[in-house]
Structures are given as C-alpha cells and as structure tokens.
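User: Predict the structure for this protein chain, please.
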Amino acid sequence: MSNTYTWNVVQCDRILATGMINTLHYTINASDADNTYIVGAYGSIGLEPADPATMIPYDSVTEAETITWLQAAIGEEKVSKIYQALDNQLVEKKTPTTGTGVPWST
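Assistant: Here is the predicted structure, written as structure tokens:
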C-alpha cells in the first residue's frame, strides 16, 4: 500500500481592493497505509495575477480550487520531490536511524 497525502490551504493573502489572492500558505500531511505514522510540511507560494475578467470573487473561492492553483504553481516535479521528502520522513519514523537524548538519563 502507498502513503496518503493531504493538502490544506491554511491562509490566503489577497489584495483588498480587488480580492485577488496572491499568496497561498499550505500544509501537506503524509500518512502511511495504516495511518500509524504521520509527517508534514508547510510552505507558501506566490501566485501569478489572475485575469480580472475570469477571476473568481474572493468570497466564492473554495479550498479545492486553491489546492489546484497551489499544485499548478508548485509544478509536478516539485510536488514529486515534496512527496519523496515526506516518504523519507515516514521511513525514518518507522525505522529510526538517529536518536536524541543524554546517556545518563533513563
């Protein structure tokens, strides 16, 4: 089974005069097949200006639309790299290769 990735847009920056969204702040969570391990990432990306003639009014924008815009702005190659980094974090959580602490504390 494969990992599951969940995208969320946690904030939209916009131009107040027009309602045009110009920056998206997002999280991506990845979980393994049985949901035992979960890791995440956070980022922000600027958007190209929308065409005023076809722009969706700010109050009508859905999270699904922003996720589509976000993934398009990031690009397929970078999305794949993000997924690979999250997969690597899940592997490290399942089978740790490093640890922290002090040897005199139990």
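The helical segments are 63-74, 76-94.
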